[in-house]
Known about the structure:
The protein is built from 13 helices and no strands. The chain is mostly helical. The longest helix is centred in the middle third of the chain and has 21 residues.
Amino acid sequence: PPLRARRAGRDVALVLADAGTRRRGDALRLGVCHLESGAPVPAAVLAEAVEEALQRLPTSVTGRLDWTVTEGLARAALAQGAGPATGLRLAEALMKQGRTDEALDLITGLLPALRPGPADDELRARLVNAQVHIVSGLHGRYAEGVALAEAALPSLAPASRTPLLQRLGMEHVLAGRPRLALRSLEALLDPGHVAYARTAYPAGLALWSLGRCDEAVAVSLDGQRAHARGTDPFPRPAEVHALV
């Protein structure tokens, strides 16, 4: 019965909290106990639960792992004071559910809290990357999305610019501007670069669009090899890596 289930959930949460979240999936189990029973869980553990949910752990961990669970965990963590990184995860969960306007409003509200500098550069780049993806890739406002990326790039340290340069490359390709895409990706076109698998995706498409097919094949094969090395957390090899 519901009341007994809530009590059982609190008991499980207390045991997990006492033992420590040492196993993969423990934070997620504890977070789900919080959602289902209201058991007290620290914000740091809830933020960790969000990350575990995004790794798409087996549904046996929760019984019903989906994007609404990720959303609930992120909202609970933010309510307890979790930072902008968890806010970005909430925006991603909203995007996955097709709620792009909500995600965009959330990201726009998070950005002013971050200041230029090494402490926040990586997170700022990730937030702007998501912002551009929604504005240009999902809402079709290409010029506005490119302007957002180009405005953010000068204030980012070179090491933090990679996701935005990759995003620009992809948006230029999709807009039929392969030369602009290659210009955006030029600094990243090194097969030894940690993020080369993701760079090779738009670069291969751009070269193919320009009729430079031998180069497109070479870049794409290098992208496959980079993905196999596992240095870039790209979830799967880009289709173009196999297509060309």
